[in-house]
Amino acid sequence: MCLMPSLVWIKEERERESLSDVYFPQVLDGSNPPYQCPFENQLECWQHSPAGVHGCCKGVLQGELLSAILDFRMTWKYFQRAAALAPEVLLGPQKKRGHTLLLANEEGHLHRKLSRVFSIESKHSSIKNNKGTTEVAVETKSFSSDDHRSALLKGLNHLRSDETLCDVTLIPGDGLETFPVHRVVMASSSDYFKAMFTGGMKEQDLRTIKLHGLSCVGLKNIIDFIYTAKVSLNIDNLQDTLEAASFLQIMPVLNFCKELLISEVTTDNCVEVERIANNFHLTEVNNFINDFVLENFSRLLKDSQYIMLSEASLEHALASDSLKGCTEMELFRAACDWIHHDKSRKVHMFRLMKHIRFPLMSPSELYDISQEAAFLRSDTDCVNLLLEASNYQMMPYMQPNMQTERTQIRSDATHLVTVGGVLRQHLVVSKELRLYDEASENWKVLRPMDVPRYQHGLAVIGNFLYIVGGQSNYDTKGKTAVDTVYRYDAHFNKWLQVASLNEKRTFFHLSALKGKLYAAGGRNSTGEIASVECYNLQKNEWTFVCPMSEPHYGHAGTVHGDLMYISGGITHDTFQKELTSYDPETNTWSRKADMSTVRGLHCMCTFNDHLYVIGGNHFRGTSDYDDVLSCEYYSPEIDQWTDIAPMLRGQSDVGVAVFKNKIFVIGGYSWNSRCMVDIVQCYDTKTDEWQEVFDVPEPIGGVRACSMTVHPPEDTVESQTNECPLSTKS
User: Fold this and answer.
1) SS3 651
2) Is the distance from CB of 614 to CB of 600 less than 8 angstroms?
3) What is the mean pLDDT of each run of 10 residues along the chain (730 residues)?
4) CA–CA gap between residue 242 and residue 250 (Å, rounded)
5) Over 485-539, what HEC string results?
6) Which of the listed CATH numbers 1.10.10.60, 3.40.190.10, 2.120.10.80, 3.40.1280.10 matches domain 414-718?
């Protein structure tokens, strides 16, 4: 129902006690009777039969009567009719007090009020009379004028320029100029002036006020901004303006100053900008300076600009994994030079030195430091840093389990990494170590293995990559399985050979669990094997542990909690769907719920609390192989499997890695297509969807993958190598 906007809704207010419930406006004929309509008056609907619906409002306020009530052009006769109908139509049973409807005429003069809770709409609303469950919503349109705002400021500025109606004069601390202004304008723009002019301060009644500590340039810029909403900033007036904006609490100008400071930062002035930011507590600028110093630290070292940096900024750079372009030795010498520049800085020595990654230096560099840096020996904590590095260098096999802040590679980027595999062309076994660089969307080559590998085991401990067993020659029967083990150190881009397996194996699973490696099952020249071996890093040796219940090869595995899980695989030429777990604490195997599908040469990984089983193959009929596209995950807490979306294309004997909260399946063999593939499929656990994302350089099977932190190579492989604490063995 359309009601005219003469009805004005006023926000909820507490209703004062009244004898009557409804008041109507005076009528135009001047009779103005003291007519009261008690709320309890209940009338039947005038448009229905006498037995009509109680409270029906359809058509009640229509036509001449509606016009009379709302426009107040009513005679005594119409007033009586309206008074009789209005309580029923407009007022429902009282639910709560506090809402008031005011009636105003077209000139806006307030007449009478209707007091009760009810609902009435204008244009897009309708009257509700469901026993008082009502609201009032009257359409109101707001209009604004940017021209008026601009004209207002312009007018005020003209008054200021003409010194018209100005009631106070501001004088800067240097007293070079005076500024007549309007108190009300200044108070409305600045909390400082608002407190001064309204808070009972002595300046409240003064005609002239001197602002000590503010320069003429700074105060003028602030006043200009208040009256024009514009400010002119440059390097010359920035500090004066910043002082005034900070002192007078003019936040927009303060923000403009921050923007200018950030936009003008260079290696030549970053120290000065940092000083300004510290003086005025400009957190955003300080954060920017920290990032700028970090990104340009190698340039600052060459120009010696870093010498004047604050201790906080220098420490932020030295502690960051993102610091690039400097060796640890260069960073150590930079910290020493900064400390020696001012004797008072010696108190910061350990705070800086604890971020130098001494363990990642070469043995010769550590020796030079111990001989040259005598001042370090005066600080016990610094001496302990050198001892830590020495111990790290002396125990190369234990390094993956000795990780601290100072042994982490200086890189904030985790990458997908692939190792080995057999190439489709000529069936050549690869020894390549590659990473996928998302920035360039290309695969880049790291230091290759000394020997080729495929069908090998891969595991990561402390960002060290282990390659175990596998084959150097293409052989689907596993008769050329090997027992050698290599470790890749991303800090130095170097490979190190460690202790070999007790039993040669390929088509097996390798897991890293609680700082040790576990190699389970597989096959070799003797056939399928059930043995399981554990590698102890401290002793650099492999020992046999509890074997699997039956020989398995082509199985997959993963780790969750303190257990290693093994799924599927092939036993006596039969594909399996069983799931078992190994507990190193008790050295026992346990049977879990079976998968829904038999499969082998599949992959397995852990994400959150779910163990995902993906792809693989099995027999189609009695002798032919078929891709398994179905996927599922296991929930250890409830010992239950759940189906998920199937793969888009078949992949067996693949590399798998969890990367950026998604599961990547790399390369492999498609039994349906009868060829090796170069695809990478990605599974999103949130959306339960697969997609093909990018390709590997060439079709490859038997490849292995992981995610780890490495430096993406920028030049050749050789340029990325550094001196390693322990030479590589062949």
Assistant:
1) coil
2) no
3) 28 32 41 37 38 39 38 46 46 36 38 36 42 58 89 94 95 91 95 92 90 94 96 94 95 96 94 94 95 94 90 95 93 95 94 96 92 86 94 96 94 94 92 94 95 97 98 92 97 96 98 98 97 98 98 97 98 95 98 97 97 94 85 98 98 97 97 94 98 95 96 55 39
4) 10
5) EEEEECCCCEEEEECCCCCCCECCEEEEECCEEEEECCEECCEECCCEEEEECCC
6) 2.120.10.80
The amino acid present at 647, given as its one-letter code, is M
Per-residue three-class SS string for 268-289: CCHHHHHHHHHHCCCHHHHHHH
Instruction: Please report, for residues 163, 517, 623, the alpha-carbon distance to residue 320 in angstroms, rounded to integers and kept in the order given.
Output: 57, 31, 57
Hey, what CATH topology would domain 148-406 get?
A: Potassium Channel Kv1.1; Chain A (3.30.710)
Residue written as tokens 């026993």? 131
Q: What is the enclosing helix (H) or strand (E) of 662?
A: strand 662-666
CA–CA distance, 66 with 81 (Å, rounded to integer): 11
Residue pair 95/133 in contact (Cβ under 8 Å)? The answer is yes
pTM: 0.74
Pair 486, 496: CB distance under 8 Å:
yes
Amino acid at 673: S
Q: Are 261 and 237 within 8 A, CB to CB?
A: no
Residue with tokens 């296991």: 634
Distance, CA of 144 to CA of 148 (rounded, Å): 8
Q: Which parts of 176-248 fold into alpha helices (H)? A: 183-189, 191-198, 216-228, 238-248
**Domain boundary assignment for the chain:** 7-115, 148-406, 414-718
Amino acid identity, residue 373? A
